[in-house]
């Protein structure tokens, strides 16, 4: 009798909606093919056919999402556990297609009007333990019910499968960027906190006892897509600065007017701490997310601007001997200083302030109190950390297209004379301090000499009266013409057609173990092949190359 009833219901379903029946059958058949027969080609082919069917049958999308809602194991198996890239990509494409078509029909029913409350309905839910149905109140939208499983329940499972979680987050990113209602759901579901917690990978202050970080020494998780979603959610929210100024930040992507979504400050509270931002986030490679987050949160917000600028300057100061970390921090400072709002002048002053009242002997106390600017640090530490100072001067050069930065520097031009003197002196100091490429380091004398030339050229445009001064000083640094001729004659008398350079035995016999290819090529040639040295050879000038000591405690920053 049961089989007879089932057959009758099946016949009725086929008659009412044959296309939907084909979708149901094809879906279950494809999953069984994969599970039992392991036929990858047939599985992929069926998934692609299903995607085409969804385009013609909206009810099929709804049924598919309902099926996955009650069978979340299928999502985990095919989107996270599956080792086949092609199979995961096709399952992801099918899921994205189903979500997109379903949202077109349902997104207006996600919430009650402009409120944060879901539209609800009562459904019959089957209790397997008690073997009976009971009434359950759930969101009316099939998409919302699916996302409650997909995002709120499965997110933690992605930690175990970090090597394959990119397809999962690609689906989530697609959903987040579909429209206002989709973004609103994720924010209501505490998406900002959850994604921040996920991306910090159990680092303080998001560490949880007995939860292991993702990744190993040779396999790190890729957080690019999760942080892109996080950035989108944050930039969809209205901040205090936007409300108070009644103007939107340049990268705001949220709804306008009465549909505003307030940023959940309780969820970003941890970001506004040194432990999270300065020690945690600045140590990651979330460059795109960081720049977008800072420019949005600092917009017309004095407290946020003061915090982030103070921490960026602090971080630059404590890492001034670690040249590899400076580019990221410089880029963040450039992004924040380029925000054109009512607080731009204050942020510029925080970086470029130079007050004659600040004496160099007081700098230690000033640094303890965080009352120093980045340019002040560069000035007072220029003897011990010349490369750091040069990078900060280069930051001035890189911001020459920001009008308010140029205006601020022009007003305080008299306090910047040390910059031009430092640049001229560095032409001699840097080559003698960093004469060879260190093994494993990408920084070399030629790189900084080129930077000096670029800085001199561009600062001469910012401060036209410096142009002649630079020209005269550079001429004074050049050897006299008669000295050049004498050097050339001496080299010719020794039998060489071209002048040669003496090289220390220590440089020729330097240990190349662990050195990169560029370093080996230079060392094996006996002489660094820099453009400036070639020019010196043509002019007959000889230079002695002194090896750089490995001890980083000699008062200079390590390359």
Question: What can you see in these coordinates?
Answer:
The chain is mainly α and 559 residues long. It folds into four domains: 7-173, no CATH class; 190-284, no CATH class; 301-400, no CATH class; 412-559, no CATH class. The chain is 59% helix and 3% strand. The protein has 29 helices and two strands. The chain has helices spanning 2-16, 18-37, 40-56, 58-69, 72-81, 85-106, 142-150, 166-176, 180-188, 191-199, 224-235, 240-245, 265-268, 274-280, 287-297, 302-318, 326-337, 344-352, 363-368, 374-380, 386-398, 403-411, 417-433, 445-462, 466-477, 481-493, 505-508, 517-525, 531-539, and strands at 120-127, 132-139. Strands 1-2 form a two-stranded antiparallel sheet. Helix 6 packs parallel to helix 8. The longest helix has 22 residues, at 85-106. The N and C termini lie far apart (83 Å). Mean pLDDT is 82; it is low at 435-442 and 494-559.
Helices and strands in order:
Layout: H1 2-16, H2 18-37, H3 40-56, H4 58-69, H5 72-81, H6 85-106, E1 120-127, E2 132-139, H7 142-150, H8 166-176, H9 180-188, H10 191-199, H11 224-235, H12 240-245, H13 265-268, H14 274-280, H15 287-297, H16 302-318, H17 326-337, H18 344-352, H19 363-368, H20 374-380, H21 386-398, H22 403-411, H23 417-433, H24 445-462, H25 466-477, H26 481-493, H27 505-508, H28 517-525, H29 531-539
Antiparallel strand pairs: 1-2
Helix pairs in contact: 1-2, 2-3, 2-4, 3-4, 3-6, 4-6, 4-7, 6-8, 8-11, 10-11, 11-15, 14-16, 15-17, 16-17, 18-22, 20-21, 21-23, 21-24, 23-24
